[in-house]
Every structure is written in structure tokens, then in C-alpha cells.
Amino acid sequence: MRGFTALVEHGLDTDGRCEACARKAAAWMIRQQDADGAWRRGASPLTEGPCKTYDVHAAEALAGYGRTFNDTASM
Question: How many angstroms separate the CA atoms of 36 and 48, rounded?
């Protein structure tokens, strides 16, 4: 998500493929979220507890995508 977004922000997505991939990735991430915004499905069995630090990392990338593309569903 960060990579696709960064390529677009830096003007390196000349054919729009990175933006299209970012949109698909964002839509998938949103579909995986529970109603309260948490990601519980597909969690690694090697982690414990309800909150995982990688969820924060993923959420920040999703919010960055939302800001860049003005996609309010992602922010």
C-alpha cells in the first residue's frame, strides 16, 4: 500500500497501474475489517492479544492512501 501510494505521489505512475493496484488493495483491506474497524480475520497464530502492532502499521498505510486519493472510506 505504501509503495503504490508513494509511486503515485512522486509522479512515477505514468500509466495509472499503481493507482489501480492501490485501490484494489485498499478495498480488500476494508473488506477484511470487522464492523468496529479491527482486523481479526487472518491474524497470525504466532501473535497473542487483541491488538497487534502490525495492525497499526497497516491502518496508517490505509489512511495515507485515503488522504492521497481522497478516498474517505479509507481514512
Answer: 19
17's grid cell: 497501474
Q: Please answer whether residues 11 and 22 qualify as being in contact, where contact means their C-beta atoms are separated by less than 8 angstroms.
A: no
Q: Return the SS3 of 54.
A: helix
In contact, 6 and 67? CB cutoff 8 Å: no
Q: What is the pLDDT along the chain (75 residues), one digit of tens a residue?
A: 999 999 999 999 999 999 999 999 999 999 999 998 888 887 777 777 766 778 888 999 999 999 999 998 877
Cα–Cα distance measured from residue 72 to residue 14, given in angstroms and rounded to the nearest whole number: 24
Residue-wise burial string across 5-17, b where 16 or more C-beta atoms lie within 10 A, e elsewhere: bebbeeeebeeee
